[in-house]
């Protein structure tokens, strides 16, 4: 034991090893497996270990891939814009307009209530609301706003994005609220003392200081939306597809090599997106 | 010139049922350095923040230069505030921090940067213009805050405990600079502090506040030399508060001399002797179980020393005996 303590290199190695082991087994190993499988050969009835680029060639050769990736980015971008707008507003209101900490915490917990049920249930609960004879359409018709039901409310891109925004806005609220709470209130007084009006304070002080929180929220939302498949399937009524659905279809057809190749490309795409985002803002201060 | 004064007319601040500032009246002289002095919670900061416009006033009015500024937004009052922790914008360079108020006014970049550089030259920070605030020392940050407040060309600069975040050595240096700057600029400084030495060193006029009201105000020397209340005498320090047959009196400790037991105004026994370098402090217990402190020049003391337990007489001139009204 004494010897162990005397050797700082060994003891720090031992301290790191549990986390290293967890990451190795649950992160690195699966990815290595997926990468390996993505080079295997698949036929209708068999999967053969091999090293060939057929899966990737097929992926990049198919026009479906590009449409699906475009769709994925489209969902990510629109969802990001909506969640940012709503998330920033909610966080701003909580952080700067609610005066007491008790109320801030109470209202913040209120925002988390939807998370007490599962994603699927929250998603499905939109269906009776948005459907052809659903609550939204019948209400609008009874008000005389529309004469016949709006078709695009359910099983459309609108429904998909609505569900995404509903599911993921909290991931934007939390980091932004957290960053905003750390802004020294005297900075806002100092800005007001220097003659800044509300909009100028927002633009020149609050937004620049909230950037790291916005960036963390952005990473959450973008990765969640880009990796999702179930929301797209349910809310588009299987009429739209994103990369996640492409992979899940391959898996359903037991086309594991093809699914792996798509997954690797999606992983690289998401990593590149995050790398680009991180060029803009230094989030290290926040961690 | 006299209508450039800042005047408080029964200014009151209430938070619910508690009164933080209770109908205070004061006329600040123009071009002077005034210290608002008092223990924490006495209402001095609230008063300053009301003058600045960061706290609404519950009653009364604030008049500057003949204008009622009580309800104007901070930037339109002709005041500028320097915050306790400086409140520099951490994402902006020193230059942009100083130029902030000009940017808000819509001054173009070249012009506002030139003006900000002028201000930085005034506080001797030209070389650090491109740094971020957290790359500066406490003293440098304070100068930036000062430059940022002064660029608005205020008639009155409000300083909220500006020296409390600095170490003792820097505090003394910065307070010289503040005083020098006030003289150079020829505007009024109003400085909130809880340190009486800081107030005495800096101020032309001192306002001592306690329990939401002004206890005493006037030229620094008058306030120190002739306290009117027990609170002021004790808060300023260096005073004995003695109950004599015709009332309470404040007597400066350094105005008390020690004599032979029968020759003084009062007689007492020495309880403690402390050597303090230039002075020796002698505590004595007199009739009525009161403690009196005498500060005696060290040469005088060592020519004729006393020890605890000795009987001595204490003497002071009648002119040094100030009657306390409360």
TrEMBL record, chain A:
Stored InterPro entries: MetI-like, MetI-like_sf
Membrane topology, from the record: Multi-pass membrane protein
Residues spanning the membrane: 12-40, 75-95, 107-130, 150-177, 256-281
Compartment list: Cell membrane
Highest taxon of source: Bacteria
Ranges where the ABC transmembrane type-1 domain occurs: 69-277
Principal place of residence: membrane
Keywords, alphabetical: Cell membrane, Membrane, Transmembrane, Transmembrane helix, Transport
Annotated family: Belongs to the binding-protein-dependent transport system permease family. CysTW subfamily.
Protein name: ABC transporter permease
Species: Octadecabacter dasysiphoniae
Automatic annotation (TrEMBL), chain B:
Organism taxonomic ancestry: Bacteria, Pseudomonadati, Pseudomonadota, Alphaproteobacteria, Rhodobacterales
Molecular function terms, GO-annotated: ATP binding
Ranges where the ABC transporter domain occurs: 6-236
Official protein name in the record: ABC transporter ATP-binding protein
Keywords: ATP-binding, Nucleotide-binding, Transport
Source taxon at top rank: Bacteria
């Amino acid at each position: 034991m004494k010897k162990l303590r005397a050797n700082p290199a060994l003891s720090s190695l031992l301290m790191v090893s549990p986390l290293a082991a967890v990451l190795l087994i649950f992160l690195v190993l699966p990815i290595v497996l997926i990468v390996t499988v993505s080079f295997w050969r698949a036929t209708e009835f068999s999967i053969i270990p091999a090293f060939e680029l057929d899966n990737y060639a097929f992926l990049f050769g198919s026009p479906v891939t590009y449409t699906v990736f475009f769709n994925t980015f489209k969902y990510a971008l629109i969802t990001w814009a909506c969640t940012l707008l709503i998330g920033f507003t909610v966080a701003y209101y909580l952080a700067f307009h609610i005066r007491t900490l008790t109320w801030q915490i109470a209202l913040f917990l209120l925002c988390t209530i939807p998370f007490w049920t599962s994603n699927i249930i929250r998603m499905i609960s939109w269906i009776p609301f948005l459907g052809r004879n659903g609550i939204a359409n019948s209400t609008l018709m009874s008000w005389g706003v529309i004469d016949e039901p709006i078709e695009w409310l359910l099983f459309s891109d609108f429904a998909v994005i609505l569900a995404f925004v509903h599911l993921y806005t909290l991931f934007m609220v939390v980091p932004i609220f957290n960053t905003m709470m750390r802004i020294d209130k005297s900075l806002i007084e100092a800005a007001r003392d220097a003659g800044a009006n509300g909009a100028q304070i927002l633009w020149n002080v609050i937004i620049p200081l909230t950037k790291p929180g916005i960036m963390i929220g952005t990473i959450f939302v973008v990765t969640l939306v880009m990796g999702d498949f179930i929301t797209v399937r349910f809310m588009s009524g299987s009429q739209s597809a994103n990369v996640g659905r492409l992979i899940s279809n391959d898996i359903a057809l037991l086309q594991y090599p093809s699914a792996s190749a798509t997954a690797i490309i999606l992983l690289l795409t998401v990593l590149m997106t995050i790398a680009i985002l991180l060029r803009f803002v230094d989030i290290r201060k926040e961690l | 010139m006299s209508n450039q004064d800042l005047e408080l007319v029964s200014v009151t601040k209430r938070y619910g049922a508690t009164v933080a500032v209770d109908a205070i009246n004061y006329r600040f002289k123009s071009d002077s350095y005034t210290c608002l002095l008092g223990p924490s919670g006495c209402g001095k900061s609230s008063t300053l923040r009301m003058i600045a416009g960061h706290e609404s006033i519950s009653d009364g009015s604030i008049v500057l230069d003949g204008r009622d500024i009580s309800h104007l937004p901070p930037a339109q009052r002709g005041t500028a505030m320097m915050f306790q922790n400086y409140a520099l914008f951490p994402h902006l360079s020193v230059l942009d921090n100083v130029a902030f108020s000009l940017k808000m006014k819509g001054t173009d970049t070249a012009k506002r940067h030139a003006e900000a550089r002028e201000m930085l030259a005034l506080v001797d920070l030209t070389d650090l213009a491109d740094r971020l605030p957290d790359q500066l020392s406490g003293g440098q940050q304070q100068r930036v805050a000062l430059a940022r407040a002064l660029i608005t060309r205020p008639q009155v600069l409000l300083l909220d405990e500006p020296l409390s975040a600095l170490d003792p050595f820097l505090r003394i240096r910065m307070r010289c600079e503040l005083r020098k700057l006030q003289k150079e600029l020829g505007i009024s400084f109003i400085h909130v502090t809880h340190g009486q030495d800081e107030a005495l060193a800096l101020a032309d006029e001192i306002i001592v506040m306690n329990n939401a009201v002004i206890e005493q105000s006037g030229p620094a020397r008058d306030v120190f030399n002739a306290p009117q209340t027990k609170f002021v005498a004790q808060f300023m320090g260096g005073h004995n508060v003695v109950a004599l047959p015709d009332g309470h009196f404040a007597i400066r400790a350094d105005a008390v001399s020690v004599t032979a037991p029968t020759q003084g105004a009062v007689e007492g026994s020495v309880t403690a002797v402390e050597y303090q370098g230039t002075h020796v402090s002698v505590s004595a217990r007199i009739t009525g179980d009161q403690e009196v402190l005498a500060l005696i020049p060290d040469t005088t003391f060592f020519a004729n020393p006393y020890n605890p337990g000795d009987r001595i007489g204490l003497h002071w001139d009648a002119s040094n005996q100030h009657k306390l009204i409360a």
